[in-house]
Design goal:
This protein is α+β, with helices and mostly antiparallel strands. The chain has six helices and eleven strands. Helix 2 runs antiparallel to helix 3 and helix 4 packs across helix 6. This is Peptidase M20 dimerisation domain-containing protein.
Length: 255
């Protein structure tokens, strides 16, 4: 989550780089299966923080209060309609509230509540549309219930967009070291985030998904405390990077 790639790009260390390649382990595919394709392969990732400021009081006298928890709950439910009713279903998108907090005791109406959530999108325009929708819903809930609602957006990672020429090189490298049978074509974009995207904003390149599924752990998700992978994938990854570098150097020499 620290966006190390952004810091490296800011350092200038890769200012003269002609191309860049990387491997990402993927538990969905067996060792020897690899995904390498051009275009967008991951989501934009943004965060939102919503603070509801109402008026606290005794739970026995709710008419003298502005219940921040009720308003926050309304916002949570209303946010669900942005993706389901406002975004084109052909554009994968997610709005999830991961944390809600408010109040301190059972017999008092909370004067404030907070919502923390994430936005995942694959299109720049949809990214803007969803942020506008969240702001609109939060503002409307505040007006409807006489509360003050504040929204803050924290920009996350861009989408990983593999360049066409480097994706061709990546695919050829895979064929050279394993064969055509290794290539797996997918028609979906992962909704996870990846800071390799910061490299690709400035340098042509390709991030591949390296099959690393371990027998018996097929259903254990990445980032789980019990996640593990088949280490045979490491040798394939190293061979791929070496072959991709060789093919890139050969290609640059011809220009």
């Amino acid at each position: 989550g620290g966006a190390g790639a952004r810091k490296i790009m800011g350092s200038g260390l890769l200012a003269k780089a002609d191309a860049i390649f990387a491997c990402h382990l993927d538990r969905h595919f067996k060792v020897g299966n690899i995904v390498a394709q051009a275009g967008s392969i991951s989501a934009f990732t943004d965060r939102f923080d919503i603070t509801v400021k109402g008026k606290g009081g005794h739970a026995a006298q709710p008419h003298d209060t502005v219940d921040a928890i009720v308003i926050a709950s309304l916002i949570v439910m209303s946010l669900q309609t942005i993706v389901s009713r406002e975004v084109n279903p052909l554009h994968p998108s997610i709005v999830s509230v991961g944390k809600i907090a408010g109040g301190s005791v059972p017999n008092a109406v909370a004067d404030s509540a907070t919502l923390l959530g994430t936005i995942r999108t694959t299109e720049t325009q949809v990214r803007k549309q969803i942020k506008a929708g969240i702001q609109r819903i939060a503002n409307a809930a505040g007006v409807l219930h006489n509360a003050r609602v504040e929204v803050e957006f924290i920009e996350g990672y861009p989408s990983v967009i593999n360049t066409v020429e480097e994706s061709k090189i990546a695919r050829q490298a895979i064929v050279n070291i394993i064969g055509d049978e290794a290539l797996v074509d997918t028609r979906y974009v992962t909704m996870g985030g990846e800071d390799f995207s910061f490299y690709l904003e400035k340098i042509p390149g390709c991030l591949i998904r390296l099959g690393a599924q371990k027998k018996g752990l097929e259903n254990v998700p990445a980032h789980s405390s019990t996640f593990d992978f088949d280490e045979d994938a490491l040798g394939i990854g190293a061979a791929f990077l070496a072959e991709a570098a060789k093919l890139t150097i050969d290609s640059l020499a011809k220009k």
